[in-house]
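Listing S7. Sequence submitted for prediction.
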Amino acid sequence: MAVCPVCNGMTGVEKKCPECGREMLDAGVIQDYYDPYSAYLEQGIYEDGYGCNNGRHCVHLFACPECHYDARLVFKKL
């Protein structure tokens, strides 16, 4: 079974905000924001909806605490 290196703390990610230059924060996997219950469901339920090679990648939302810019970053599962 493949796992996300970011979700599992195997790697850290530093992403600068393209709008203001401040360090963006990892707000978690994008599926947690789909609906009120998605954060409590199994991750495999939403993986095909990402459009990223049938669940071989994990999509995280990164958000800037200063200007509120956000971006989706895709990480390959190991």
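Caption to Listing S7: primary sequence and predicted structure tokens for the chain studied. Strands lie at 25-29, 57-63, 70-76. The radius of gyration is 13 Å.
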